[in-house]
Every structure is written in structure tokens, then in C-alpha cells.
Amino acid sequence: MPIEQVQFTDERWLQFWQNFKGLEHQEDAVIKLGRQIKQADPSLLTQSAEWVDDWRGPTVSTNTWGGVEAAAKRAGARWPELVAAQWALESGHGKHTSGRHNYFGLKGPGTSHKTQEVVNGKTITITDEFLDFRSLDECVEYLVDRWYRDFTANGKTYRGVNNASCRETAARELQCQGYATNPNYADRLIALMKQQRPLQSEALPRNPLSVRWQSQNDNKGGTGYRECFSSSCAMLAMHWGKVVNDDAYNAIRAKFGDTTNAQAQLAALRSLGLKADFHTDGTPKVLQNEIDAGRPVAVGWLHKGPVSSPSGGGHWSVVIGYTDIAWIQNDPNGEASLVSGGYVNTSKGAGVVYSRKNWNPRWMPGGTGGWYLTCRP
């Protein structure tokens, strides 16, 4: 038999992997091997494969706040204390499970169990199925893989909450993405984290803040060209975990009035449980204070005409950060041409940098106070 056809002995197989140095050609070979294994037997590359447990070793996490934090950290959660807060809330600090070793209320084929859900503002009791796991560690890994890391299913990639700028924002994103139906879910998680980790300071708000951009130009209703105010307010609501996108927000706002009506926007935001206020006396210091407090702020300004004489019916965007010489904004209409007026493009408005020199006169024409809308839980 030719030497290239001789199968590896166990000893030779171990020696082979001991020579792995993480070099690019070695990584390519490992990926190729993985693909071939999937073709031969897909079950060999799953969390339940026997060799996976052998590889991990005998680590068993304790059913405590600290044990869950440790398991979450090993699994790759950026905010392990948030995972622990979910464990505490969903299982009564480890006293109750919804499925076998299921401490997080994770649904799927397994154990049938009664649970409470909030539907149309009312709490109802239903019977649902919950996943079963072999251990607490396996349950934590499943949660982190699908909710904290970026996760791909059916050709679609979902952004995990590891991308959030701080643990509070991560909690709100969990609620926004539909983890739980209770409207107070994020607030309860945040309270638990502060209670259990009082000496662990919150991560300082990032500048710029992590705020998902929305384009007014693709709004479902077909009138996005005049819905900059709604798309801007939607970004605020999304930041606080209340809606999933500007189409969802627009459906709510439409119940209270036209998109150009500030009172309709305030009513819509307040109906979501947010404290919203409209002001016409804005200053740069006010905007900076909002960002420093971790709160994005919507701003109304004149986007037409030259900077020396701005005009137009007004446009709305969201300030998400600042520097000494510029404002960082999510502009729902794209990137504005601040010097001459109008827009450079209408599709790339996330995190655009607008100089204070050319934007401030459009926000505070003639030195008057600027229009802005604040929003917080």
C-alpha cells in the first residue's frame, strides 16, 4: 500500500495536531477537514457530539450567579453578568427550570410547561415547549451562541448583543429582538445587575453611542421622503429597546398624527413607556450633555440653501456623538452637503460627521436656539 494511503495511528494523529501553530495554510486545512467531516457525518460537528465533551474536559459550572457568569465568560459572552441576570430572572436564581437544565426559558422541542406571556398588554398563561439540555453549561452555550454572538440561520445573520456598547444597552437589545414579551424585561435585568454587582461600575457611554441607523427612503408606507422625523424618533425608540425598526415605529406614530407633528411623535414615544420632550432652545452644550449621559438626541435643522443662508421646511436626524469640531449623526436621508445644501447621497447616513462650523448655523439659524427632542426610559 502506498505510504500516502496508510491511515494515521492514534499516536501519529496526536503528533499531527501537536504541530498545529495557527498558520494560515494550517487553518485552511482545518476548515477543509471540517467540511469533509460534515459531508461524511454532519452529527460529528455538533455541540452534542461525544468528542466535544471530551475536548472541553470535566468543567461543571455551579448553579449560582458566579457559576453562571463563569460559564457565560467561557462561552464568549461580552456581558457575562447579563447572562447571570437572565438566569436569576428566568429561573428564580436557579430554583426553577422550564426544561431539563433549561434556566433561561429557551423554547423549542422538549418539555411542555405552562408559562406567562404578555400579549397586547395583557398577561396570559399558555402551555409551550422548552428545550432540554444535558447541563447548565450546555444551556449557557446555547444561549450565548444564539443571542450574544452573531448567529446565522436559514441564510440570515442576526446581530448578537455582544455588539452593544454597554451591558444596559445589551439588555434592551435582548428585549427589542424579542427574547421576552414582558415590557419591563430589560429594566428588571438592569436592576438585577446593579443589585448583584454594585461595585462594578457601568461601562461609560461610548462616544459615539451605538445607535442603529434607519433610512427614511425605504419606509414601507411609500412616503419615506417626508418621514425624516419619524425615522429619527424610531432610532431613539430602537436604542431603548422598544421597536425593531422604523416601519414598526411608524405604525404606532400614525395612530397619533402626521409625521411632521411633534406632538404626534411625543405621544408615540410616550406610548412606548419612554419619557420624551420637545425643545426649541437647544445649545451645543445641551447636545453634549445628552450624549455624555448615554442618550441619543433627535435634532431638527435646515438642510437646504447655502450655509450662509439656510432654508427649507426642516429636516430631522439623530446626534449620536461629538468631537471638539464636529457632530456625529445618524441622518435618515443619507449624507448632507452642509456648505451648499442638499445631499451628497441618500443611502449612507450612518455615523456621518458634520462639522460644527457648517452644521450649527443650520440648527441655530441667526443664533436662535435649536430644535431637539430628548428621549429616555
Folded structure, characterized:
There is one protein chain. By secondary structure, the protein is an alpha+beta fold. It has two domains: 65-196, Lysozyme; 216-376, Cysteine proteinases (Cathepsin B, Chain A). 37% of the residues lie in helices and 18% in strands. It is built from 13 helices and twelve strands. The strands form four sheets. The protein has a six-stranded antiparallel beta sheet, with helices on both faces. Strand 1 and strand 2 (122-131) form a beta hairpin. Helix 4 (65-75) crosses helix 6, helix 5 (80-91) packs across helix 8 and helix 7 (167-176) runs antiparallel to helix 8 (185-196). The radius of gyration is 25 Å and the shape is globular. The model is unreliable at 199-204 (pLDDT under 50).
Quick overview:
The chain is of the alpha+beta class and 377 residues long.
Corresponding CATH architecture of the largest domain: Alpha-Beta Complex
Shape: globular
Q: Estimate nothing, just give the exact number of structural domains.
A: 2
Strand order of the largest sheet: 5-12-6-7-8-11
CATH superfamily of the largest domain: Cysteine proteinases
- Arithmetic mean of pLDDT: 89
Q: Helix and strand string, N-terminal first?
A: HHHHHEEHEEHHHHHEHEEEEEEHE
Topology readout:
Blueprint: H1 10-18, H2 24-40, H3 50-56, H4 65-75, H5 80-91, E1 110-119, E2 122-131, H6 136-148, E3 151-153, E4 156-158, H7 167-176, H8 185-196, H9 228-239, H10 246-253, H11 262-271, E5 275-282, H12 284-292, E6 297-301, E7 315-322, E8 326-330, E9 335-336, E10 343-345, E11 352-355, H13 356-363, E12 370-376
Antiparallel strand pairs: 1-2, 3-4, 5-12, 6-7, 6-12, 7-8, 8-11, 9-10
Helix pairs in contact: 4-5, 4-6, 5-8, 7-8, 9-10
